[in-house]
Prior knowledge:
By secondary structure, the protein is of the alpha+beta class. It has one domain: 3-Layer(aba) Sandwich (Aminopeptidase), CATH 3.40.630.
Amino acid sequence: MIELQIASKKDIPVIQSIAGKTWNITYGSILSEHQLDYMFEMMYSNESLTQQLDEGQTFYIAYDNGEPCGYVSVEKQSEEIFHLQKLYVEPKKQGTGLGKILITKIFEHAKQHSATPEHCFVELNVNRNNKALQFYQHMGMSIDRTVDIPIGEGFFMNDYIMKKQV
């Protein structure tokens, strides 16, 4: 049985563990090894995750019979726009419906925390070559725009911004 729990700073090692199991599998064929390492440290160091939590990102960790197996995070951008920052499912749990459970939780979270629940949106960035693009489209998200975001050391995030009214 899948249970979702809101993460706190004490859960940073759990988030890092799941990220470590999924990161290279997700991006290994898209990004260079140097960029993989750079981005992982940028987004998953203790300091970075602490800052993300302090600045208002909400993380939900998925547990299957007590074992952590995925997570999702969301950040309120405005009264009506929420940004899905991260969604990762351990490889052994992919294709089981866990991703759908996690993204549905973010849609619910957005409605619950919006000043205009009848008119709120969830956005996310997805690498233009990420296989997850089809998953997000299946979940009703559509490409809103294309961006190339400099992230340091000469690297860019070459993403689509996807959006859905929830």
